[in-house]
Amino acid sequence: MTHRRSLIAATAALGVLPRIALAQQRFASLYVFVPAGPGGGWDGLARAIELTARQANLVGSFQFENVGGAGGMVGLPRFLSQRRGRADALMIGGSVMVGAALTNKTPVSLQNTVPVARMTEEAGVIIVPANSPHQNIGQLADALKANPRAVSVAGGSAGGTDHIILGLMLQKLGRQPREASFVAFPGGGPAQAAILGGQVAAGISGWSEFSEQIKAGRVRALATTGERRLDPGVPTLKESGIDVVATNWRGVFGAPGINPTQRQALVDLMTALHATAGWRHILAERGWEDAFLTGAAFDTFLERDRSETESVLKDLGLA
């Protein structure tokens, strides 16, 4: 009895909830589906989950599959059909998929999955190639205002967060969002290649997707899209006179057909992972905001996000 009380006291002192303690029972294996190509934000989240889970001994082994295209809409039907009822499967997704489903009017969406947890939120960054004539966001804004169709901008899927950011920028600059010359790519890797190769004039994506290229001087960061600066030398759109604030949330989803107990096991796993020092380190290192949310609160958030995204897309003429 004394030993048991000591164990309970030690657990309480560490601030570990009983449910988190239960989640320390390791998953022997976990299949993670990424509905985008390697090198992008969703792939980055998947690999971060793997790294943290391995360090914390939460999962024995991982299997990954990447299927990119149309903001996740190409891969989503594959996950829904092939992993139905699988309690050891997770899919990475986020706000991009909400917009992509609405823009493409797809028969399936995130509503067909089982929500597990919202994990992160990240501001976007507007970048140009290192040799671009646009030295600051004001110069790029002038070019967009003068002739939007002459300024090609790379990003993720049509109707996704990157596309919405460009549409909102044009709207604030007095142009029509439909005038945008937006070039959609299936993943962060291809988009980076197009920007570095000078195939487009600018690019929009999550900060973490371009941070290494920015540090290396291969691209120039002109502005970020959040409320606060992510880098002391890079202003936000809002403080630059373009009143746009937009972030990109990412999370994990279970396969259709799993039961409430199986869903809770996945929630417990992500809750335990979120509580680790390793996860806090990754958030700080990559500039991700902690947006952790599970259960009914996550379900409510998803319903509200879909409604708000649909409203914005209609206002911008993108849906």
Largest sheet: 10 strands, mixed
String of helices and strands: HHEHEHEHEHEHEHEHEEHHEH
Measured as a percent range, the helix fraction is: 40-55%
The CATH topology name of the largest domain reads: D-Maltodextrin-Binding Protein, domain 2
What would you note in describing this structure?
This protein has 319 residues and is α/β, with parallel strands linked by helices. The N terminus is likely disordered. Strands 1, 2, 3, 4, 5, 6, 7, 8, 9 and 10 form a 10-stranded mixed sheet that branches. The protein is built from 12 helices and 10 strands. β5, α7 and β6 form a beta-alpha-beta unit.
Concise structural overview:
This protein is of the alpha/beta class and 319 residues long. It contains twelve helices and ten strands.
